[in-house]
Amino acid sequence: MEVYMDNAATTRAYPEVVQLMNKIMEEDYGNPSSLHMKGVEAERYIRRAREILAGILKVEEKELIFTSGGTESNNLAIIGGALANQRAGKHLITTRIEHASVYQPMMFLEQMGFEVTWLPVNAYGLVDLDALREAIRPDTILVSMMCVNNEIGTIEPIADAAAIVKECNPNTLFHVDAIQGFGKVVLHPKRIGIDMLSVSGHKIHGPKGTGFLWVRDRVKVQPLMLGGGHQKGMRSGTENVPGVAGMAKAAEIEYTDFENKLEYLYGIRSYFIEEIEKLEGTVVNGGKSRGSLNRPAEDQQDACAAPHVVSVSFQDIRAEVLLHALEETHVYVSSGSACSSNHPAISGTLKAIGVEKRYLDATVRFSFSFDTTKEEIDECVAQLSRLLPMLRRYTPGGRKRGGKRV
Amino acid sequence: MYKAFLIKYGEIGIKGKNRYLFEYALMDQIKFSLRKVDGQFEVTKEQGRVYVEALTEYDYDEVIKALSRVFGIVAICPVVLCDNNEWSNLCQVTGDYMERTYPDQHLSFKVFARRADKSYPKKSMEIGADMGEYLLDRFPDMTVDVHNPDVALNIEVRERTYIYSISIPGPGGMPVGTNGKATLLLSGGIDSPVAGYMIAKRGVKIDAVYFHAPPYTSERAKQKVIDLAKIVAAYAGPINLHVINFTDIQLAIYDKCPHDELTIIMRRYMMKIAEHIALEEGSLGLITGESIGQVASQTMQSLRATNAVCTLPVYRPVIGFDKNDIVEISEKIGAFETSIQPFEDCCTIFVAKHPVTKPNVRAIERSEHHLVDVIDELLKTAIETRETILCE
User: Fold this and answer.
1) How many CB pairs under 8 A join A and B?
2) pLDDT for res A30
3) Residue of B nearest to A325 (CA)
4) Considering the entire predicted model, what is its pTM?
5) CATH fold of A15-254, please?
6) Min Cα separation A328/chain B (Å)
7) Cβ of B254 under 8 Å from any chain A Cβ?
8) Burial of A343 (0-12, 13-18, 19+ CB in 10 A)
């Protein structure tokens, strides 16, 4: 039985997506810029995709810029946003738990003479909103914050954050990296005061190499791809028609019957955590119960989890070894800590939430999709309970703590 | 412009009556190296020289790259060919060659003429003198210097006339296949590919053994070793890579032997397995990338302890090299970037905090005695279940 639990890395494309893309590549392969019928046909797919995606986010169709994926969307928002607004100031704000496609552009801008404030997070990975309030200055031009953390699955309080940003400095742009959030939370960026939102196609069962940046009308962004002036000059390059159509199709499916699917997935998640906590020497990182975009009450900080990501630390186990051992039984997961930046302000999510040093290398990320079944969870947990004692026999700590010599 | 290449080889010249064997091996390796280059080539041998002639259009840089990886070649001279007809035609062709090759023209030259075809109307001396005169007339900025010329212009009259003056260095060494076969213990590191390269350079065909320890080493670590084998194979010819599943042996050692001796005991079993495969595959020795004192398992004492399990000679071509020297060769052969990819190999996972640096062979043997019930079966299984991958 193959158990794919690495859906935060990428997902399997929905069959409908593949079908549609096949048809476009084989039959409706025109260039949307062409004047003839073939071009018009292709353009229709792009229009339709705009309709679908704008409908989901409740934004204007013309506000979407199609890109090559999450990384490009984040780069465009941050570098493009900073360059276009640098006359108003050179101060940027982000958090210590961002993805590399946010913090690398931030570091690039630091080298270009911008100043960046890196906000801390608490033990659940929630961004410190008081620190945000204090950090905003008259010359702050952009705040960038993720919607759902990719390593531990915390849903950040972006609605409250947006309110704070606009209250402290109405001219400051607020960008949200929603690459892990889109398809797993209900997002209406315009209503909560966001200015830019990054999305990736392949995290929601769409094709790789697709994504988009939503940019609120009248927000100035400097384009980074210059050329033939496609997409109103915001992103030159022939549109990836099959990719864009496939991504929209995937989003449409993802958000159909959404509340029920969400309910189901949170159920799967709770079940998984219950089973995991029965195993010896395991710690689940981050919040445990259902979260939302609005900041949880102070006494309910535990309730900030996205449905699809669970980060687990295993005592006396090396994540990479466990990953490969699981791989041998066709269970696919990811090792927990991705960040290895040298920047003093960036520590990676696990370090930032204060995970003990001995657990940093011992953390595995399990990530689900709406298709994940209880049987798959059972298989995964069964393999874990078989492998953990075996692997612990061969680590110094594991032996000390009672692993038997054979 | 160049229709042929003159291949100069060094050490083969002194091999006495075996010389033809070395020359044929060299020609085989040249043909092999050119098989992936677009175009048709003819490799011929005459009077102690090997020529590569292009029969079709070809890419110059590709040919040079391929030839400069053939062991045994000391230098590659790109040659312009001219039919033996009017003297004026040869002058024209030679002059054009000089003009294109040395656009600056402020240089001294000397003509080295040879006449293999004795029916040619001019003698060697006359060819030299007359060609010199023609060139001096045509290029006023050029001078003749018979003692220390900037450019040594060679003109060789055979059934056609060969004109050349450029010499591109080859790798030297001896053609692969002229010195038997040896088995390389290949890890994912920097040293072992360099060791394989250096021994292959002496004309030795290479077989390789890699110890894979899933789940402690990943598929990517194995792919990296395959990539490294391919890089060495670009010089050494096709390499059979034997992948041994070493996990069970490693775990058994971990279970039953003192932890400060893990690495040294592991190395000893690796050598044993490698020797077994070497003998099966007809190798005459083992090759390792060990260098004295580099790590705990490469002290003089450790080397003695690992060496003690083998009867075949173990060749350690980088034994006296500093890491920097090894890195230099690694970069030169294009292996460095692959070698430093950060995938764990089995050496780095089962390492004690303080491994023994001065192991005593008798003590190690006593520790290994704990494995006596299981080890024969484990070794047998590891050898029998090996996967062999052809890397070229």
Assistant:
1) 26
2) 97
3) B215
4) 0.84
5) Aspartate Aminotransferase; domain 2 (3.40.640)
6) 8
7) yes
8) middle
